[in-house]
Queue: 2 jobs
Job 1
Amino acid sequence: MKVIFVSSEIVPFASTGGLGDVLAALPRALMEQGVEVIRFLPLYQSIDREKFGIGPCDFDIHIPLGSSWFQGTVWKNEWQGVTTFFIQSNAFFERPGIYGAPNHGYGDNFERFLFFQKAVVRLIDEWELKPDIVHCNDWQAGLVPMLLYHGIDGNFRNGREKTLMTIHNLAHQGWAPAEKFYMTQLPDSCYTMETLEFYGEINSLKGGLVGASAINAVSPTYAKEVKTAEFGCKLNGVLYHRQDVLHGILNGIDYERWNPETDTHIPANYSAKDLSGKAECKAALQKVCGFRVNPDVPLLGMISRMVPQKGIDLLFDSIKPIVESGAQLVILGTGDEHYESACRNWADRWPENVCAWIEFSNTKAHRIEAGADLFLMPSEFEPCGQNQLYSMRYGTIPVVRSVGGLEDSVTDYSDKGGTGFKFSEFSAEAFFQCLERALKIYKNPNRWKTLMKRAMRQDFSVTHMANDYIALYRKIIGN
């Protein structure tokens, strides 16, 4: 079986979140199961070609966007046994960032990723790759199914490749003005209410949802949620209509990267059999945060994009009672300016209780996962989430809202086999009550240690995810 992945993010080359992690771990796990895998990614300016050994293929491509032609080149890398081809373009990718500034994307993102998608289809033909599945990820690959069928330049292609459209986050849809439709060179039949047209504009993700052979969301609960008005981001009707080919597969994580027994980013290694290193990690984190080093003080961690989806507003309304409870809180992440500013203000106001690292740091993320006692994820919605999975592996107990992948992966402490604490209502009161429940259990060392060990023994490995995808690929091919 040959699978081609099309994505705008892949760790370690370029990533802003969970998409990049999945596109690193899943292809490698599939390769280990005997699947032939090829990945395609834009060659962004920020990608270190020398560090990762990315070299040119001596192959030029010329891609039409409407009546204009754009030139690019193809580069290649072998990383952990997986081949990745990079699409280079001076016009579209030689600029800072992946999508633009943190709070404002590039105005030509539709054109940038249209060029990328057309280049992928061109290379599938030029190189006679003949994949069994083209696995498209999020809106930046949403037009691939239509381009495979109708062609990239107005000449009918009649592509017979099976396609899978994975929804990593339905909120990001790749809208563009209707005036840009001509650039796709797709037939007029592709710009209707049943296809790309959406409230008078182009919706790239919708194109993938209606054009792909099958669809999946990154957790079973999210696959159900996206069919509802509350979580469907206006596309719930489209997904309800295609529910017969809509599936849910929970993301897994790479335990080679996230393993407290071997992690080189943390001060001390530890396991469920020997937790002594966990205490050392906590003391080191308290010290670097400027907190009082005390094993009995609960240390809360949060690693997040600072956007409304992540429930930062609930933290706004809970920060004072959290501090008054005596707990310590360390926050790592970047995002909306007013959230970043608020976190800095909390750290200035309560330096003995709050530390805010407004940055992206892989090392600090590992140290928070290892050093914290509890991990906060009060998300408004969460397609899958991965930090709760990392946290459980590190014996850091998650406090989460019961939505999406958080619902699927965390079992509440009140239930048999509990691994964390969950709340349902999206409110600061419900969030803090849940946290209070967790802190009450934390005060009982024996019960807490039992909870930690149970959480650490959970298995959300990428191998399970790969097996689920292989089963889905076979089903798609069989259909």
Note: Residues 276-459 form a domain with the Rossmann fold fold (CATH 3.40.50.2000).
Job 2
Amino acid sequence: MATEHFSTRYQDLDTWPSLDVLSAFYEGQLSAVAAVRPSLPAIAAAAEEAVPRLRRGGRLVYAGAGTSGRIGVQDGTELPPTFNWPDDRVVYLIAGGEGAIMQAVENAEDSVEDGIAGIRENNIGPDDVVIGVAASGGTPFTIAALKEAAARGAQTIGISNNPDTRLLKVCSHPILADTGEEVIAGSTRMKAGTAQKVILNLLSTLIMVRMDRVYRGLMVNMRATNAKLRRRSEIMVMQITDCDEATATDAILEAGGDLKTAVLIAMGASPAEAQSALERHDSNLRKALADLPKTS
């Protein structure tokens, strides 16, 4: 596996000046991001298939071990506050259990049984989207989870940093970021981990865009849980509707904090009319705005 290869270029790395070491790390990070570009069509295809499943109430499921599992958790936990994605529709299958998020669990990644059990215990089915992440592409836990999920009709997405691996062969949507050898041999928290995070960022954010949780590049489904975010909500309403601050504040209050409803209220709709418009258009703000009665 390329991610495990030893590079003679870096064999004396520990004797280099600190700035030179950092330069090598930095170049590796840039190459990791560049390695994602060829996978963009695969990411787009995976997102497009995921959306109808998720519209039917499906869940996003992240499966992985070690660094890859933790990166999946990082991506998933950011979706509820950023896009108001329901907390109960994100599932984490981490080799070794929740404790492995903070501390390594020996041999957990080798357990086929645990990978299968995680899928079965969460009753994964046809509406669910399972994302398996493994730098090596050979992690037994993650491969077993994807295989079991596929057998149950779920969409399976595999993310790996090595080509022609089992992980990429057992899933319906293989995504490869061939990051090659690491500056520190086998330290896949570096280049491989960076590429995985980029891919997950792109994939989950595109899914949220296609789920109508973004409008004009704004997080219109955001949870305003603190003063900073409440202020951001007011600014977004003003940006979208071109209203003044007082109107935006009043609209948000009338909407009970729901930003999309507040936008429609600021545009002249009553709370009931706003909610009805959003319901008619499956919470698509652009379509709901177009559906508002035109005023002279």
Note: The chain has a mean pLDDT of 93.
